[in-house]
Write a structure and sequence with these properties.
By secondary structure, this protein is of the alpha/beta class. Helix content is about 60%, strand content about 10%. The protein has 23 helices and seven strands. The chain starts with a helix and ends in a 12-residue tail after the last strand.
């Protein structure tokens, strides 16, 4: 029976990762570079002749390079690993296949961490770790998202798994070297700020028994740093067509210039007072107990102290996001699992431990409920992806539309909230740079230049537009659909009216996407509760516009 429980718990991690991916299948702007780069490698290949001409005319990053150049190593790996499966299931499933592969890689790293945790501290601790990790939203939700952080995450998680004590003390020195090697690769290739984590891990190893020495880890650090450069620099220089080590640029941009502050500044305490509580949920209460309790303090400190020091030092950086510290979730959750296992194993020994055990179980259920609600709400934050899918369905279902090739413009918000090259087409290959679905062919444009967008001639070439502001496209246009997005939580009393759907439909526009699902759920709940509702408030985000041509008597949106 115990083995079955362990198998089911282990399967819960990849299963929940895939569920989160399916519920929220689209991507945001932070993931844009890696998802577009993976698409381009799959779609256009890697030429050996006329390389610059081929790459610059097809690859997205030449037109939209981003604030700093990013490494292509993650996209190259995903494209190479996913290509055989995509050839079997079809290119219209390619984005999900690519994301699922990344999610399963991160799941495998988490399960390796769980295995090493159980070998060192017992089955109970490993089980509690799995339960706590499965109830935390952020890691499961982001595991399949092609962020640079999530390419580094499996390396850091494996590194932490090698830092967990081994039953054979003689192997611990070798395992420490492996951990340093993995952290070096993650730092040099994907996220330069992980150098801080490598320093905190090293310092803790130098002062805590069984102590390591600097000469022990110098060789793996230098060796794998050289390996990282030998892999990253040639590959990234090829794709960017200039000599390049991307993470050096990232370090210079963020640490030297401090330019990341342009994306927002958070207070010094943000990671400890906001980000970590959201990431850890119920583990946050158990972590202090595990660090304080004499029966678990030594093991918990080894797991938690290097991570907390990393977060503390990294807090100096003004621009902060929760994803920047995802790496510490596994070790901090493991430390909390030590505390949970300690209490639960004593639940029959006193009323105190029995009561606390029930409280822990209750917190797990609450944490899982919170995670589920967060998944539902987060899935409403991708109106661009929903609008693109709804647009293609509209065009495919319009029988009287006498058009063979449609030119489509997607605005900034659409591209930031789900429009990707994968989503723009279902069939491959391209014919004359045109995406073809069924009998309609599409060409897509995502021009951002404001001067160009204010030119009426620019808009004459488009048949459809996905736009946040329906008045921005110049000329006669009709709104054929509106996709809503999450705009906060609303509390409705009996007799009050909801915003969102009602406002849109009163204007004669058709609501598409998940806004209609939210409306149905809201109406059903209000019938059951006598008119009360607490839930997502939806507002129009993306308007699907069709050009009004001569002789068409339709409602138009004009500038």
């Amino acid at each position: 029976m115990g083995g079955v429980i362990d198998i089911l718990l282990s399967l819960s991690i990849p299963t929940l990762v895939i569920i989160h991916m399916v519920v929220a299948p689209y991507t945001k702007v932070e993931e844009s570079f890696n998802i577009q780069a993976t698409h381009d490698i799959l779609a256009y290949g890697t030429p050996t002749k006329n390389v610059y001409q081929h790459l610059s005319s097809h690859y997205d990053h030449f037109d939209f390079p981003g604030a700093v150049p990013r490494t292509f190593l993650g996209p190259v790996f995903l494209a190479g690993m996913s290509q055989p499966l995509i050839s079997l299931v079809g290119f219209h499933h390619a984005q999900l296949v690519v994301r699922a592969l990344l999610g399963l890689i991160n799941s495998a790293a988490l399960l390796t961490f769980k295995h090493n945790l159980g070998r060192a501290f017992g089955r109970s601790t490993a089980r509690w770790y799995t339960v706590l990790q499965a109830c935390q939203f952020h890691i499961l939700f982001y595991a399949s998202r092609p962020l640079p952080n999530m390419f580094a995450f499996p390396l850091t998680t494996l590194a932490f798994s090698y830092l967990i004590p081994h039953p054979d003390p003689r192997k611990q020195g070798v395992r420490y070297k492996v951990a340093i090697a993995l952290l070096t690769l993650a730092t040099a290739i994907f996220r330069s700020e992980l150098a801080i984590l490598m320093v905190t891990v090293t310092v803790y190893g130098l002062i805590s028994p069984p102590r390591i020495s600097l000469p022990q880890i110098t060789a793996p650090f230098l060796g794998f740093f050289a390996v990282a450069l030998l892999v990253s620099v040639p590959i990234d220089s090829y794709f960017w067509q200039k000599p390049l080590w991307p993470e050096l640029w990232g370090f210079y941009y963020n640490a030297v210039l401090g330019s990341s502050s342009e994306w927002g500044v958070s207070p010094l305490h943000y990671y400890f007072t906001s980000a970590l509580p959201k990431i850890l949920t119920s583990s946050l209460v158990l972590l202090p107990f595990a660090l304080w309790n004499p029966g678990t303090a030594k093991q918990a400190r080894a797991l938690a102290v290097p991570s907390l020091l990393f977060v503390a030092i990294y807090s100096i950086q003004p621009h902060k996001e929760a994803r920047f510290i995802f790496y510490v979730a596994p070790p901090l959750t493991a430390a909390a699992a030590l505390g949970a296992g300690y209490v639960f194993s004593r639940r029959t020994k006193s009323p105190f431990f029995a009561t606390v055990s029930l409280a822990i179980l209750g917190s797990v259920l609450v944490s899982f409920a919170i995670s589920t609600v967060m998944l539902g709400i987060s899935s409403l934050n991708y109106p661009g992806g929903e609008a693109l899918a709804a647009f293609k369905d509209l065009v495919a279902s319009t029988k009287d539309l006498d058009i063979q090739t449609a030119a489509v413009h997607t605005d900034v918000l659409s591209c930031m909230t789900g429009v990707t090259l994968f989503g723009q087409h279902s069939n491959w290959p391209l014919v004359d740079n045109t995406y073809k679905d069924n009998t309609i062919s599409f060409t897509f444009d995502k021009t951002e230049d404001e001067m160009t967008l204010r030119n009426p001639v620019f808009w004459e070439k488009f048949d459809y537009v996905l736009a946040e502001d329906p008045a921005k496209p110049l000329g006669p246009w009709e709104v054929i659909g509106v996709v809503e997005g999450f705009a906060g939580i609303e509390i409705l009393k009996p007799g009050s009216f909801a915003t969102g759907n009602a406002d849109v439909e009163s204007a004669g526009d058709r609501v598409l996407g998940r806004g209609t699902l939210v409306k149905r759920v809201r109406d059903m709940v209000r019938k059951t509760t006598g008119g009360w509702w607490i839930g997502p408030r939806m507002e129009p985000r993306i308007h699907i516009l069709r050009k009004v041509r001569g002789g068409e008597a339709r409602k138009a949106v004009t500038s």
